[in-house]
Amino acid sequence: MAAQQTKRNNLFLFKRDFNKGANQTLGLPMDQTVIEFVGATEDDPNNRNKYSHFIVHFTPDAGMWSGGTFSLEFKWTHDDGTPVAWPNEPMIAKCLTKIWHPNIDTNGDICHSLVYVQGGLHPNGMFNSSIKMEMVLQGLITLFYMPNFEDPLNMEAGSQGARDMYEFEQQAKQWTQQYASNAPNVPIYKQPTTGRGAPAAHLA
């Protein structure tokens, strides 16, 4: 049953959010982003299963995290194997790169209104079934430019920023240099074949 539900969810997100595979770049700036479809294979770069797990490697062009590359992972299966009830439940988002940030903790968990269900346990949740992945992705990327110190997940980082912003910025830059200085090495067949600026358009 869980496998059938996962298949239905994957088909839904494939048709709606990736526009039947025609919008794999999801409106993200390709000069700052490398999208990695984990399930894509060299002999079949366009298989539908690739949409259920992907990683966005994003490099901010301004601010205290500028120049670092941060990997945001998106999945539609919980750790216990049960499927995410997409589109009524948000996909599972996690930052794989260690970062000093008030809204991303040291385990990679992310605090943003679009990863919490509207009317759910988190009072600031804004996710509902009309929210598309493109909106979630672009919302999460704003965290690299506009961190929210009023609603911290990493309490230590949040309190440091509220107390001494210069000290916070120095630690954020230090962590960026230490943990986010390596560019991703993603095979071209795992990258978008469609959408604006798709780097693997020749494989479509």
H and E order: HEEEEHHH
Average pLDDT rating: 93
The low-confidence parts are none
Which range does the strand content fall in? 5-15%
Arrangement of strands in the largest sheet: 1-2-3-4
Domain module count = 1
Instruction: Summarize the amount of helix as a percent range.
Output: 10-25%
In terms of structural class, how would the helical and strand content be classed? alpha+beta
| Shape estimate | globular
Rg value: 17 Å
Q: Write down the CATH class.
A: Alpha Beta
The major β-sheet equals:
4 strands, antiparallel
Number of helices: 4
CATH topology group: Ubiquitin Conjugating Enzyme
Distance between the termini: 32 Å
The name of the CATH architecture is: Roll
User: What is the CATH H-level superfamily?
Assistant: Ubiquitin Conjugating Enzyme
Tell me the number of strands: 4
Features:
4-stranded antiparallel β-sheet; 204 residues; single chain; alpha+beta; Ubiquitin Conjugating Enzyme; 4 helices
Characterization of this structure:
The chain has one domain (2-195): Ubiquitin Conjugating Enzyme, CATH 3.10.110.10. The chain has a four-stranded antiparallel sheet, with no helix packed on it. Helix content is 24%, strand content 10%. Helix 3 (155-163) crosses helix 4. By secondary structure, it is an alpha+beta fold. It contains four helices and four strands. The mean pLDDT is 93. 36% of the residues are buried. It starts with a helix and ends in a 25-residue tail after the last helix.
